[in-house]
Each structure stands twice: as C-alpha cells, then as structure tokens.
Amino acid sequence: MTLRDPLQPIPTLSLPSGEWVPVLGQGTWTMGESRRSRREEAEALRLGLDLGMTLIDTAEMYADGGAEEVVAEAIAGRRDEVFLVSKVLPGNASRRGTIEACERSLRRLRTDRIDLYLLHWRGRHPLAETLEAFAELVRAGKIRYWGVSNFDTGDMEELTGLPGGAAVATNQVLYNLSRRGIEYDLLPWCRERRIPIMAYSPIEQGRILENTVLRRVAARHGATPAQVALAWLLRQKDVMVIPKAGRPEHVRENRAALDLELTAEDLAELDRAFPSPTRKVPLEML
Ligand SMILES: NC(=O)c1ccc[n+]([C@@H]2O[C@H](COP(=O)([O-])OP(=O)(O)OC[C@H]3O[C@@H](n4cnc5c(N)ncnc54)[C@H](OP(=O)(O)O)[C@@H]3O)[C@@H](O)[C@H]2O)c1
After folding, report:
1. 27: CB partners within 8 A, 6+ apart
2. Which of 7, 18, 105, 2 is nearest to 63 (CA)?
3. Whether the Cβ atoms of residue 256 and residue 227 lie closer than 8 Å to each other
C-alpha cells in the first residue's frame, strides 16, 4: 500500500460553525438489532474511538433506538472524546415532536447533549417547524448543531431560504463510487456554500466489493476493495465518510484506508468503471 505516515491523526474538516470534526467516522445502522451482538458492536465502536474515528453517526430509527443504546455503551466514560450525530424521524419532526424525540434519544444515549442532530429525510411536517425546534434545542444546550439528511438541491435551496436555515451544518447523503449522482449539482452547490457533505453507505453496504476494477486497483496497492472505496471518497477534503463496521478487522481496515493514496491512473480507471453523471440524477437514498 502507498502509505502516508501511519501515525498521523485523522484529518479533520471544519463545520460551518468552525468546529473541527474527523473526516472518517463510524456508522451504526443495524447495530442493536440483536441483543446477542450488542456487546461486540459496542466494542467495535470503542476500537474505532481508540483509532481516532470519534465521529459516531446514529439515529432514533436504527433498531428502534437500539443502536443509540449500543452507542451509549460504547461512549460510557468517554463522552467528551466523541462527536455524536443522531437523527429525528420525519414523522416526529413537528415542533413539539422533534423536542420529544431528541429527549428520548438523549435518554437512550445516556448523555446531556447531541453534537449534531439531523432531520433524517423530508416528511409531512413543515421544515420551518423543525427548524424552530432545532433552534430551541440549541438554546437549551441539548444539541450543539443541526443538519439534514437526504436533501436534494431543491430541498437545500428551500431550507437555506427559511429563517435560520443557512445555519445547516451538513447534508448527509448516499455517496459512493456506484452512487455519484450528487457530483452533478448537489455537491457543487454545497461546496460553494461551504456546507460539508457526510457520505453514507460509503461501501454501498458491501455490494460493490466484488467489482473487478475495484479489486484490481486494490490489488495494485496491496489494499482491500473497501479501502479503495473509502480512499476514493476521502481524497475529497470536504467530505465526511461514515462506514459502519461491527467487526474489529473491518474497523482497523477502514482506519487504514486513510493511509491509501490513489494515483491518477487509479482514479481514471475508477472513473471509467463508475462514471460521474453528465446530467441531473434525482438524489437516491437507502
Ligand atoms: N441518513 C441516512 O438515510 C442513512 C442511510 C444509510 C446509512 N446511514 C449511515 O451511514 C452508515 C454507513 O452506511 P451503511 O451501514 O448503510 O453501509 P456501509 O458502511 O457502506 O456498509 C456497511 C457494511 O459493510 C461491511 N464492512 C464495513 N467495513 C468493511 C470492510 N473494511 N470490508 C468489508 N466489509 C466491510 C459491514 O460489515 P460488519 O458490520 O460485519 O463489519 C456492513 O455489513 C450507517 O451505518 C448509518 O450510520 C445513513
């Protein structure tokens, strides 16, 4: 593998507020679904924290709150190391519903604050109401920043036109080699406004790992296909990447993806296999 200094800390990027967060974090979807595996999942997250992946992404939706409980176990005694992200379901995102959902999440997470609280996707409640609730939660110190998820360009335009809407800290969206739609307009739109993207399902939940080109590029570097998929995202300095790994070997592998530097030849080959869009593609979600 073409290694940078492996002892380097994880690079950070600045949120619009000026807060620095690591560009490589940890996802938690499907964690907490089985009682049996909760301890190993919390251990995997703790290993990730030890390796510097201190941004943890969760949601009230995951395992009906079970993932937040796993996170609570993982961060017990080390809350201050962690940049904690959680999400409110759109069905709960009324003014009062958002506040109640946040309070339930705080109880499950066994903490007094969520660092970044996202609207999981757009639903029936007016955005303005959700924003009012976010503002109230910030005032009460229950969340530090707020953001959105699965918002396409039109949604972002509408959001940032609302009172307080320009304070959005991130848009968490589906982005990986096989899902490059956002490169046409959403990513440039966010870049112009310095709103960082958080890329979810960065290895397409494992579905792209058998791809021949990905495997060939990986073999050239003595790396794995997952590391190439992550390094491809991480080469963009304003994108946060949140792979989910329940197995310790995956956690270590994902951390090491930061040490993999893709060459111009690798990037060209990946572009041919996974072309960037040449027209608007509506935002996909999982
Ligand atoms: N906002 C949204 O709507 C939304 C939607 C989807 C996801 N997300 C967030 O984004 C996170 C990541 O997305 P995701 O969980 O959908 O998919 P993902 O991170 O692309 O893939 C997770 C899967 O890949 C496996 N894996 C992880 N590292 C690997 C490696 N180095 N080699 C081989 N396999 C590896 C994991 O296995 P093991 O667990 O067995 O290690 C797991 O089965 C989620 O967990 C969630 O926090 C948000």
Report:
1. 57, 200, 242, 243, 244
2. 105
3. yes
Helices marked H in the chain — which ranges? 38-50, 66-75, 95-109, 127-139, 153-161, 186-192, 212-221, 225-234, 248-256, 264-273
Paired with 143 in beta bridges are: 114
pTM (predicted TM-score):
0.97
For ligand 1, is residue 172 a contact (CB within 6 Å)?
Answer: yes
Ligand 1 pocket test, pick from 244, 251, 253, 285 with the greatest ligand atom count within 8 Å of Cβ, gives: 244
Protein residue with least CA distance to atom 37, ligand 1: 245
Q: What is the C-alpha separation between 43 and 52, in angstroms, rounded?
A: 14
Mutate to test the pocket of ligand 1, among 88, 155, 201, 254 (most ligand atoms within 8 A of CB): 201
CA 266, CA 141: separation in Å to the nearest integer? 45
For 237, the token pair is 């300095």
Q: Ligand 1: does its nearest atom lie under 6 Å from the Cβ of 202? A: yes
For the Cβ of 150 lying below 6 angstroms from any atom of ligand 1, the answer is yes
- 73: Cβ–Cβ under 8 A, 6 or more apart, which residues? 38, 39, 42
Q: Does residue 254 have its Cβ closer than 6 Å to ligand 1?
A: yes
Question: Model confidence over 126-142: pLDDT tens digits?
Answer: 999 999 999 999 999 99
Q: Which helix (H) or strand (E) holds 146?
A: strand 143-149
pLDDT tens digits along 74-127? 999 999 999 999 999 999 999 999 999 999 999 999 999 999 999 999 999 999
